[in-house]
Write a structure and sequence with these properties.
The structure holds 4 protein chains of 4 kinds. Chain A is an all-alpha fold. Chain A is built from 1 helix and no strands. The two termini of chain A are about 25 Å apart. By secondary structure, chain C is of the alpha+beta class. Chain C has one domain. Chain D is α/β, with parallel strands linked by helices. Chain D has 6 domains: about 55 residues, no CATH class; about 170 residues, FAD/NAD(P)-binding domain; about 120 residues, 3-Layer(aba) Sandwich (Rossmann fold); about 180 residues, FAD/NAD(P)-binding domain (3-Layer(bba) Sandwich), CATH 3.50.50.60; about 150 residues, FAD/NAD(P)-binding domain (3-Layer(bba) Sandwich); about 60 residues, 2-Layer Sandwich (Alpha-Beta Plaits), CATH 3.30.70. Chain D is globular. Classes of the chains: A mainly alpha, B alpha/beta, C alpha+beta, D alpha/beta. At the C-D interface, strand 1, helix 1 and strand 3 of C face strand 3, helix 3, helix 4, helix 7 and helix 19 of D.
């Protein structure tokens, strides 16, 4: 994905067991923060929906 | 290279006469220069139709999928690797095949030659490493190494990896080839540049699916682009749909692509579609030390799990 | 002497051992009475934070 | 535990079962001041408060009794020197567990009690209330404290960060459980936890602060003073006096440590017939061992009651399933208030009202507690009355409650898969308490997604399988024989497959048990019983050469003396055992006087006269165990060597006997032997792994050099015999592991389903585990695990029929491209190719519904999109995503 020009951080893999609630929360917070910082991904929108 | 023809014909005739195969899949002269066609020879009287020159770029493995008869097949390095993949993926059985291996010195790039001249190319002949191109009012001699297909110029598997008969002595493999310079150039770009690069790359795409049809790996009964429930990808000409198609096609080839160039060769608008697959080829080599179709008895890395597999992408 | 065998078992204590016995017996076709003094079962294990080696929550 | 205030009405802990409030009679105003207050009764919406409940005496007639009354953590108040009651920062390990726990009084935040300060230095004191005859009379080892202290120290560091200094003060580090030694090593090397071999005498408060000062002597003899912020007392396990009292009333004999007395060969039988014991009452132990005993006790009870099996149980009446094929979806949405758990944050009526507007929704309502019995019955009525054919419950988590609601559907005659839960509690009201409006919006989104998904749900079938009632036990050692005996006594035909020429396994090589029982005698009794049992078929000189099939229907080929037989069986128990390590160090094999423990046992069994002539004997412990390439403790050797040392001393009281050890691990009541040995004058000298003893035959004698840590000098011992306590090495059997698809760890032991809760079974259904193949263990534990494996197996055999899950993968052969990725990638071997000769779809992939676990690996890997996971179908997931995207 990154190779094709999707910014790093939009895609995230993590291994969290069902017992690791704190890790889950941390990862979700982290990913949300990263994606929010990147802003909306205009690239992957259909031409008709593009925010201009 | 022309000297191969006699040997290929001789082997094919023998196989058909002895009844070892029901047909031989090879090449015959096309109606236009540099456009050899696949040919299915079913009786030994027809073997004279078979030809071999530097215009046999089509991947013949594509014609083996799900066939039931016994087949003799002419195989260059890349074809043989795709045959290995086909055997692994249950598309054909090894004992159905007599593989006539052809050590290859590369195929010439039709598009490159046509682009050199203003008028139509009428005739192309080759002798040794020289290719002579003739057209209305011109004749030019070219060095073959200058007009190779991009993938052939970077090929390190010119000799077939699996064969029963050999049409010529094995050739020397190219060494010290930097196969992934282009991939690295893209890797170094910023996300925006990357996006723009691929945007420009696929801009001419008309979604004719020629790349998919030419690819020996694309054999699913229903391709994901044709699925409607669920609809994985929209059918429109919207750039996101086009990009999704190219993304997914490349992913479906991950760990299986032999860089035979069939996709690029087939594209009517000249898109370098190998830009998608070669990144995945590079990653497979870097991460798993894997090149598709080289080992006849090992499942591709994406079909298996080993504890030592790289997992750095998991945070 | 013919003696009549009763197909039920009384398990005294609802900690991890008592619960496991009760489950095994109930799943093997016996009626089980599980006796526990406190208002809930689970015993000491339920007070532990995590257990080795999986560090699974002891719950 | 007094760490936090609690109201007079409470739930014991957040996940308590049953999750019901109870009234603390001793603190309730109503009970203290006769009839005053009673506010709870007035306010309870369901009228559940009843002050007039009376104690009832119920008389039960039962066939057997199992005692598992548990233990009490030792109360360290009696130790003046530790001032536990006076110093708030001296806590017990149990209290510390609560501090670490996310549901504990500090929500898992690591702070000390006196001033809520985050501690920087914590010390653990081991053996508080264990191995101690001075301050208390618990001279046994509690078995679990070393490991839990290490665990607490590691987790404390995880909570507080690397800078937290953790020190464990101990006498012997006893990490004798599976994977424990490895954990100890990482705690030391990776987490930097300090381990100090010293019993600290006194804790002194530092004047003007809440800190604690201690003085201790290091191994080099240096006196040190150190200040800690908090001290954790690793309290031992002990039996409550009222339990000892109960035992007396029942006429059950106890041990010196007030545990229930048992015999090695009948580890869960009390001295009274028909009464069995498990858990810590049987002896101090950790969770997996308690779980093993528990199953063993169940098995023992089952053995005596087998003729009355199934006489008292009740069967539920099955409701016929309504055929809904072709019906338009009629969805019912039930939104749960969960008391105020959900309704306190989410506007439940609004969510229910909204659900009415969704397509196909015919009925919505909200419930106070959807999981309560009356609501369940009501829901079933509504489903029938409204002719609902799909149901959504918006409530808590499907992890705990999905089966319950599915049962409601079944009771209403609806296929249980026509159901979907929206988790609006754990994933909504609990986490968005401060933002009720958005929480309501999220609940609406979740309900909309669930409705979209359930509309596309189809009834799923569960395959029903007959369970073959025959059992196979692989390995005819003590564990295997115990399992077979237990199965046969419970009425099942059992085959023992033994590769050797006779039954008995390693027990044949051991002289006697630490309790003094003669093994050969007991063993021949057991072998006799096995051979005579009509239901047990023994195959000697035999091995399994192939295994087909799956739980309930295995087909194994057994090759005995070149002959192959095919055996059909429903379950398999793996008890392939282990053997003694043959070392290359300490000049073993070069002198007959240097021998392994089992070779010494042989001399005892043969009553070798040369033993009488020995003047000096040396035992070396941990030969091949607890070393970098075999990082586990062999568990049995300390006790075994000490017992043999005692025997030598008995043969010749003037003999000099030395035991060279790293840590003495006589866990539980085996500790008494260690004490006895010391009393008899056996000399124990500790060595460290980087400074091992040297063994050299020199003429008449064998010279053993060792550095004494207390004296700090090199000693030279003259010995007539040297006994090496060598490691227990599993009979690594990769082939068998492959046949049954069960995993093996780096050391070669089989990996059980769950280290704590499933020690005697595998993750693969229908395959069980016991004995040394699981981990080194003494005979009593092997027997208990053999019985436990049998018990777990019986729970499966007794069902006669099993149902597989409906949520499994299915191929669509028309779309399949036969590439074989699914066949290659499936961890359970569920996909295969349809035979080439088949009439329909030859060569395409198909999935065996019995083997499929519904993990979805094949679905994700199928390029052709030819595999669907029923219940999580592509169009259902897409429908959910589309509905979700409406929220943005």
């Amino acid at each position: 994905m990154e190779h094709m020009g999707v910014e790093p951080g939009r895609l995230s893999f993590s291994w969290i067991s069902s017992a690791e609630s704190t890790k889950f929360v941390d990862v979700v917070k982290d990913v949300t923060a990263t994606v929010k910082a990147l802003g909306p991904n205009n690239n992957f929108k259909k031409a008709a929906d593009k925010v201009t | 290279m022309l000297g191969y023809i006699d040997k290929i014909r001789e082997i094919s005739k023998r196989l058909l006469d002895e009844g070892r195969v029901d047909m031989v899949v090879g090449f015959r002269k096309g109606s236009m220069p540099m456009m050899n066609e696949p040919s299915f020879i079913k009786n030994s009287g027809e073997v004279s139709k078979l030809v071999w020159d530097s215009n046999c770029g089509i991947n013949l493995a594509n014609y083996l999928t799900d066939r039931k008869e016994k087949i003799g097949v002419i195989a260059k390095g890349c074809d043989s690797r795709n045959i290995v993949t086909h055997i692994l993926e249950n598309k054909i059985k090894r004992d159905q095949l007599v593989i006539i291996g052809v050590p290859c010195k590369g195929m010439i790039d039709r598009r490159l030659i046509t682009a050199m001249f203003d008028t139509e190319v009428r005739e192309v002949n080759e002798k040794g490493d020289t290719v002579t191109v003739k057209g209305a009012g011109f004749e030019k001699k070219l060095k073959k190494s200058d007009i190779l297909q991009d993938n052939c110029s970077k090929c390190i598997h010119r000799n077939p990896v699996l064969y029963d008969e050999l049409a010529a002595p094995l050739v020397e493999e190219q060494k010290d080839i930097d196969r992934y310079a282009e991939v690295r150039r893209i890797e170094a770009m910023s996300p925006q540049e990357k996006w723009q690069y691929f945007e420009d790359l696929i801009a001419p795409c008309i979604r004719c699916y020629a790349c998919r049809n030419a690819c020996p790996l694309c054999y699913c009964p229903t391709c994901f682009v044709d699925e409607s429930r669920p609809q994985w990808v929209g059918k429109s000409q919207d750039e996101t749909d086009i990009r999704t198609f190219h993304f997914l096609r490349a992913y479906h080839c991950a760990g299986r692509c032999t860089d035979c160039g069939a996709c690029e060769r087939a594209c009517p608008v000249g898109i370098k579609v190998r830009q998608f697959t070669s990144k995945l080829n590079k990653d497979c080599l870097d991460m798993f030390g894997w090149e598709a179709g080289v080992l006849p008895d090992q499942r591709p890395p994406l079909d298996t799990f080993k504890p030592a597999d790289p997992g750095d992408f998991i945070k | 002497m013919s003696h009549h065998v009763i197909g039920s078992v009384l398990v005294v204590g609802g900690g991890i051992a008592g619960m496991q016995s009760a489950l095994d017996l109930a799943n093997s076709g016996y009626y089980v009475y599980l006796l526990e003094k406190s208002p809930s079962i689970g015993g000491v294990m339920s007070q532990l934070d995590k257990t080795f080696p999986t560090n699974d929550c002891a719950m | 535990m007094g760490l936090a205030k609690r109201k007079a009405i409470y739930v014991q802990y957040a996940q308590a079962v049953p999750l019901k409030y109870t009234i603390d009679k001793a603190n309730c105003i109503y009970f203290i001041k006769k009839g005053k207050c009673g506010a709870c009764k007035k306010i309870c919406p369901t009228g559940a408060v009843d002050f007039d409940q009376k104690e009832e005496i119920v008389t039960l007639n039962v066939g057997s009794v199992i005692l598992s009354p548990g233990f009490a953590p030792f109360d360290p108040t009696v130790f003046d020197a530790y001032q536990y009651a006076k110093l708030p920062n001296v806590v017990t390990a149990m209290e510390f567990e609560r501090v670490l726990s996310a549901s504990g009084p500090t929500m898992g935040h690591l702070v000390r009690a006196s001033d809520q300060k985050e501690p920087k230095k914590i010390a653990w004191f081991q053996c508080v209330g264990s191995r101690d005859m001075n301050k208390c009379d618990n001279s046994y080892c509690s078995s679990v404290c070393c490991m839990y202290a290490i665990k607490e120290a590691v987790i404390a560091k995880e909570h507080a960060g690397k800078d937290l200094d953790c020190a464990v003060f101990f006498m012997d580090m006893r990490t004798h459980g599976k994977e424990f030694e490895r954990f100890y090593t990482t705690a030391k090397d990776k987490h930097g936890i300090r381990f100090i071999r010293c019993r600290v005498h006194t804790i002194n408060p530092v004047a003007g602060t809440d800190d604690l000062e201690i003085r201790y002597i290091t191994e080099t003899g240096e006196l040190k003073t150190e200040i800690f912020d908090q001290i954790v007392l690793s309290v031992g396990l002990q039996i409550k006096p009222e339990i000892a009292e109960l035992a007396k009333r029942l006429g059950i004999e106890l041990t010196e440590g007030r545990f229930c007395k048992t015999e090695t060969f009948e580890p869960v039988a009390t001295s009274r017939e028909g009464i069995f014991v498990c858990g810590v009452f049987q002896g101090p132990k950790d969770i997996p061992q308690a779980v093993i005993d528990a199953s063993a006790a169940a098995s023992a009870a089952g053995e005596i009651l087998s003729e009355a099996r199934n006489t008292l149980i009740k069967h539920k009446e099955a409701v016929t399933e309504t055929n809904i094929t072709g019906e338009r979806p009629r969805i019912g949405v039930f939104v749960c208030r969960c008391g105020i758990n959900i309704a306190g944050v989410v506007d439940v009526p609004k969510v229910a009202e909204y659900a009415k507007t969704l397509p196909y929704v015919e009925f919505t309502t909200d419930n106070l507690y959807s999981c309560s019995q009356d609501t369940q019955e009501n829901m079933a009525q509504i489903i029938k009355k409204e002719r609902l054919n799909r149901v959504v419950v918006a409530a808590c988590t499907p992890k705990t409650h999905e089966p319950l609601f599915q049962e409601t559907l079944t009771n209403a005659g609806l296929n249980k898969y026509l159901f979907e839960m929206a988790n609006i509690r754990n994933q909504d009201s609990w986490v968005h308490k401060s933002n009720p409006e958005l929480a309501t919006e999220k609940a609406i989104d979740l309900v909309r997604m669930a409705v979209a998904k359930v509309a596309l749900m189809e009834p799923l079938k569960e395959a029903e399988l007959e369970v073959n009632q025959t059992a196979v036990v692989i390995g005819g050692g003590i564990a295997g024989m115990s399992a077979a005996k237990s199965l046969a006594k419970q009425g099942y035909e059992t085959h023992i497959i033994e590769k050797g020429k006779c039954l008995g396994g390693q027990a044949l090589n051991i002289f006697r048990t630490p309790k003094g029982e003669d093994i050969a005698e007991k063993l021949s009794g057991l072998v006799d019983e096995i051979t005579k049992d009509q239901k047990i078929h023994v195959h000697l000189d035999s091995a399994i050469t192939s295994v087909d099939g799956f739980v309930g229907n295995f087909k194994s080929t057994i090759s005995s003396n070149g002959k192959n037989d095919v055996l059909e069986h429903g379950i398999a128990i793996i008890a392939t055992g282990a053997s003694a390590f043959k070392p290359s160090e300490y000049n073993y094999g070069k002198d007959p006087r240097i021998m392994t423990s089992l070779e010494l046992d042989k001399k005892f069994m043969e009553k070798d006269p040369s033993l009488k002539k020995i003047d000096s004997a040396v035992f070396i412990q941990c030969v091949g165990s607890r070393e970098p390439d075999r990082l586990y403790c062999s568990r049995v050797c300390c006790t075994h060597s000490i017992d043999n040392a005692i025997e030598l001393k008995k043969i010749n009281p003037d003999m000099n006997v030395y035991v060279l050890y790293r840590d003495i691990r006589t866990y539980g009541e085996r500790e008494y032997l260690y004490k006895k040995a010391r009393g008899m004058g056996i000399i124990f000298i500790r060595y460290s792994v980087d400074n091992k003893p040297e063994v050299k035959p020199e003429g008449e004698k064998i010279m053993v050099g060792v550095t004494d840590h207390i004296l700090g000098r090199r000693l030279s011992l003259e010995a007539d015999i040297v006994t090496l306590a060598t490691a227990v090495i599993p009979n690594r059997d990769e082939k068998l592991a492959n046949f049954f698809k069960v995993p093996v760890n780096d050391d070669g032991f089989f990996i059980e389903r769950h280290a704590k809760l499933g020690p005697s079974e595998f993750a693969t259904d229908g395959v069980f585990l016991c004995g040394l193949a699981h981990y080194p263990k003494p005979i009593d534990e092997s027997i208990a695990q053999g019985m436990a494996a049998a018990s777990r197996a019986v729970t499966l055999l007794a069902r006669k029929k099993i149902h597989t899950s409906g949520t499994i993968a299915e191929t669509m052969p028309a779309v399949c491209s036969s590439c074989g990725v699914c066949v290659s990638i499936c961890p359970y071997s569920a996909p295969s190719f349809i035979e080439e000769t088949a009439r329909f779809f030859p060569g395409k992939a198909q999935i065996n519904p019995v083997l499929c676990k519904g993990c979805g690996l094949c679905v994700a890997s199928c390029r052709s999109g030819a595999i669907r996971l029923k219940g999580f179908d592509n169009d259902q997931i897409f429908a959910q995503i589309y509905e979700l995207s409406k929220a943005v």
